Amino acid sequence: MIQSHFSFDTLRQEVEQIGGLVPRDYQSRAIAEAFHQWDKGTVGVIVRQPMGTGKTIAAIMAGEKWLARGRDHRVMMLCHERQLVHQAAQENQDVTGHAPGIEMGNESIRANHIPRWVIASRQSLISKTDEEGDFRRFDKFDPVRYKWLLIIDELHR
Q: Which listed residue, of 74, 79, 85, 128, carries a Cα 20 to 30 Å from 99's Cα?
């Protein structure tokens, strides 16, 4: 059982404003506990939910809460299949009202304009160079300039 010092009512009010969605209690608890762990200095947090319980929605809500922390905050959702990248991007747009950047195959984000939300395929990020042969695609997502929240979809893959 998750125990937290957070007020779930306060978190629910913050999260409800994202696309008008009201998180389920277990989603609110998971988001609150993840932030509690990050704020304590825990580097990696794994949130597990059964299939069909709104993992992507909860991840988007957590991402939006992360972005609210500052203009230098960014979120990257890493997916392992092309179909999941586009599905996550569409769901993200449906919830937030903004299209995320996509880093996959021939869809590439400009290094000088990193959007707040990025949906990427792991295969594209590990490729050695971009189209011009200059750098690895992953290198443009600067971990010094931006404070990143990395969400890995289907972590077991």
A: 128
pTM of the model: 0.80
Please calculate the CA angle 19-23-28 and round it to the nearest 5 degrees: 125
pLDDT tier at 105 (50, 70, 90 boundaries)? confident
Tokens of 44: 């990696």
Pick the closest to residue 48 from 149, 121, 155, 148 (CA basis): 155
Helix axes 8-16, 55-67, angle to 10 degrees: 90
How far the first Cα of the chain sits from its last, in Å, is 26
Of 2-16, 42-56, 102-116, which has the strongest mean pLDDT? Answer: 102-116
Burial, 47: exposed, middle or buried (Cβ in 10 Å; 0-12, 13-18, 19+)?
middle
Backbone angles phi, psi at 120, to 5 degrees: -135, 155
